[in-house]
Amino acid sequence: MKQPLQSHGISTVDDFDACVVRSDSSSIREFTFTVADFKRISGLIHARAGIALNDGKRDLVYSRIGRRLRALRMTSFREYLDQLESSGDDAEWQAFTNALTTNLTSFFREEHHFVRLAELLAKRAPGERMLLWCSAASTGEEPYSIAITAAEVFGTLKPPVSILATDIDTQVLDTASQGVYADERIERLSEERKRRFFRRGTGENQGLVRVVDELRELVTFRQLNLLDPRYPVRGPFRAIFCRNVMIYFDKPTQYQVLSRMVPVLADDGLFFAGHSESFFHAGDLIESCGRTIYRKAQR
Ligand SMILES: C[S@@+](CC[C@H](N)C(=O)[O-])C[C@H]1O[C@@H](n2cnc3c(N)ncnc32)[C@H](O)[C@@H]1O
């Protein structure tokens, strides 16, 4: 559904709509890409995924959506957007969304969270299978870091945890479920972690590592848009990782997302946020209990 740009809270760009966007004054681009096209794309991705694109993202948008135009042999952004909006083509909408997500991640990013997670896992009740949710899993480094932490706490590759890993982007989920990475992605991990949790590729897979099968089996990957009004997930989750995705959402959207997550968070569960995210505006739902760590508001 298209909404007026103002309602998305997106800062407006140059209103000279007829202007063809150029990367610099000397280079004219392959495709016609007007300021109006950029505004239209910003509005569509904001309505669909909550992602707010500021003016600084124009080059990125040109390059990412330009690939779709090339694949579809189109010559202008307007043609592409007209077809996208009129066709109702789910596959192209997904390709459009995948093209505009930012998927930066790494193993054990914000390491202090995994120390706290390990303390939480160590408190497992006898016989309990602990449910954990990684809600912006990207290419998988985060859910596998959760799995590694669990394997270390319980001293086995089959720890009593189940990890649900979700993302809106189907392309990153494909990468995540394969669990194959360039070996420099794990270079900062200890030798012990590399040896226990990864297998090195040989021959044509030289330079690649694969997460061991036992850890991959702990993780279930599913697509889930955090903007959806209902989440088809069943908790209660002892931990929810929701890191470095809420930064793309405005505060009312963050509040709505939290109001859907908190009911599936266990009463003694932990909610892990990204390093620059804070939720003091949602104090009736969650409260801080550590550096970018939250728990259910204790009423
Ligand atoms: C910057 S990455 C963060 C990855 C990981 N959580 C971390 O902190 O390293 C943000 C991820 O959020 C996902 N994302 C963006 N909008 C989303 C939405 N509406 N619903 C679910 N995931 C979304 C993107 O596809 C991307 O993989």
From TrEMBL:
The keyword RNA-binding does not apply. It catalyses: L-glutamyl-[protein] + S-adenosyl-L-methionine = [protein]-L-glutamate 5-O-methyl ester + S-adenosyl-L-homocysteine. Keywords: Methyltransferase, S-adenosyl-L-methionine, Transferase. S-adenosyl-L-methionine binds at N103, T105, R109, E142, D167, N225, L226, R243, N244. Its EC number is 2.1.1.80. The keyword S-adenosyl-L-methionine applies. GO terms for biological process: methylation. GO terms for molecular function: protein-glutamate O-methyltransferase activity. It is an enzyme of class 2 (transferase). InterPro entries: Bact_Chemotaxis_MeTrfase, Chemotaxis_MeTrfase_CheR, CheR_C, CheR_MeTrfase, CheR_N, CheR_N_sf, SAM-dependent_MTases_sf. Residues 26-299 form the CheR-type methyltransferase domain. Pfam families: CheR, CheR_N. Methylation of the membrane-bound methyl-accepting chemotaxis proteins (MCP) to form gamma-glutamyl methyl ester residues in MCP. This is Chemotaxis protein methyltransferase. It comes from Hydrocarboniphaga daqingensis.
